[in-house]
Amino acid sequence: MTCEELVRHLSDYIDGTLAPEDRAAAESHLEGCDKCHLVLDTTRCTILLYRAARSPALDTARRDALLRRLEKACRRSGDLDPA
After folding, report:
1. Cβ proximity of 13 and 26 under 8 Å
2. CA-CA distance, 28 to 1, in Å (whole number)?
3. Sign of the CA dihedral 61, 39, 14, 76?
4. What does the pLDDT look like over 58-80, one tens digit per residue?
5. Residue 8 maps to a domain
6. Which domain covers residue 58, as residue numbers?
7. Cα–Cα dist 79/22, whole Å
8. Domains in the chain, number
9. pTM here?
10. Which of 17, 28, 50, 67 has the most Cβ atoms closer than 10 angstroms to its Cβ?
């Protein structure tokens, strides 16, 4: 699998809906490609941050605290640029 193909299938990979052979190819590619692994990690962090920001079950203070913790964790792992 090429970088372009991985990016094209990234959403399905994250959602777990890729066919088993495509998932295996994606995982094999991710093992050897730091750039694609960074894209995957960044996308996952973005999804988590978006979901936390939109969660109606959390009051504002808890949502803000969760967002700060997620941002800190993503920065620590190098998946989020400091803003």
Report:
1. yes
2. 8
3. negative
4. 777 877 887 788 788 777 765 54
5. yes
6. 3-76
7. 24
8. 1
9. 0.65
10. 67
